Amino acid sequence: MQVLDVIVSLATDETRPTWAISYLWCSIVMQNSRRIAGYTGRVRRYLHTFGYVLIATLMSASFLRTTMAATNDRVEDIAALAGSALMLTVVEGPFIMGTARTSYEPFSFDLQYDDTEQPQRRVWLNQYEIDRDEVSLGEYLLWQRQRQPPEELRKLIDHVTTIHAMQPETLTRWPALYVTWSEASDFCHARDKRLPTEAEWEKAARGDSGNLFPWGQRPPTPALAMFGQYHAHEIPIVAPVDSGEEGRSPYGLHHMAGNAAEWVEDWFGIDYYATMPDRNPHGPASGRYKVVRGGSWKSAPKLLRTATRGGASPNQRAATIGFRCARSTR
């Protein structure tokens, strides 16, 4: 019988004399004093452990609050230095979109990356304006002041400022990264702009005559584009969005190859080029992936071609994907 059961039976037994109950009670206490002492010691140890855990939790919470406050200050400093976007005009008219297979050499830049670039088409676009530069981190964080930046971006800012001692003056000119397609679209609409269509992006990148790369036919070099970089911890190795004069496109746009790959408006259609209209195409009506163009700081040279197509889930956040905005002029 357990101690608790004995105590209950004693308390409810009206036939037992009071002195007997007292004697039995004392006997139980004496017999179990060592066990009670063990319980007390155990409780004391539990309380000590709980105290240590509580202190550690409070210290961690205080540290996290301090760290978050410091990160918020860094975000504010970067946003405060944001510049304004310059837009350039792309005149109406036709251009060459896609790739015609002109080489059978497996490592030739003239060889299409995949069949989604074909057939090559002559497409007419109305006049429009497009950002000269990729949207900067400073501009994006300035827009994000009404909400918290994504966790991946906050961690990146905290890492590069504390570990690599990067200054706000540098980071504000980085391309905006870890941006979903919806966030990119919302940013552009908040400024009375929109994401460019895939056709608009390609024309702005290659010009009217179908350049292989934004700067012409020459293979990429570090002076022309930021590409082929690698970092073990996925820390972006990027150039300021307003740099890249030597590698600019025929319409004067910077970093249409490398640096940050860019979201565009269209859904990705594998065989869309075969069926798209000849004037102002806007992509398929639906899809699983949104088109991403231009290659990034990690890309191989062949992915910097102006005709190379890629796609990503609209909800994806990546250290390699940014965006720029466009605007119709009529």
Radius of gyration, CA atoms, in whole angstroms: 33 Å
List the helices and strands in order: HHHEEEEHHHHHEHEEEE
Calculate the mean pLDDT score and round it: 85
CATH topology of the domain at 87-136 and 173-328: paralog of FGE (formylglycine-generating enzyme)
The computed structural class is alpha+beta
Question: Uncertain segments of ≥5 residues (pLDDT<50)?
Answer: 3-8, 18-26
Query: Which sequence of strands runs across the widest sheet?
Result: 7-6-5-8
Overall helicity: 25-40%
SSE inventory with pairings:
Elements lengths: L2 H10 L5 H14 L1 H48 L6 E4 L2 E5 L23 E5 L2 E4 L5 H7 L7 H12 L5 H4 L9 H10 L7 H9 L54 E7 L4 H4 L14 E4 L15 E4 L8 E3 L2 E3 L2
Parallel strand pairs: 5-8
Antiparallel strand pairs: 1-4, 2-3, 4-9, 5-6, 6-7
Helix pairs in contact: 1-2, 3-4, 3-5
Describe this structure in words.
With 330 residues, the chain is an alpha+beta fold. It is 36% helix and 12% strand. The chain has helices spanning 3-12, 18-31, 33-80, 137-143, 151-162, 168-171, 181-190, 198-206, 272-275; strands spanning 87-90, 93-97, 121-125, 128-131, 261-267, 290-293, 309-312, 321-323, 326-328. It has a four-stranded mixed sheet with strand order 7-6-5-8. It is elongated, with a radius of gyration of 33 Å.
Q: What would a concise description of this structure say?
A:
By secondary structure, this protein is an alpha+beta fold. 36% of the residues lie in helices and 12% in strands.
Provide keyphrases for this structure.
four-stranded mixed β-sheet, elongated, paralog of FGE (formylglycine-generating enzyme), 330 residues, disordered N terminus, alpha+beta
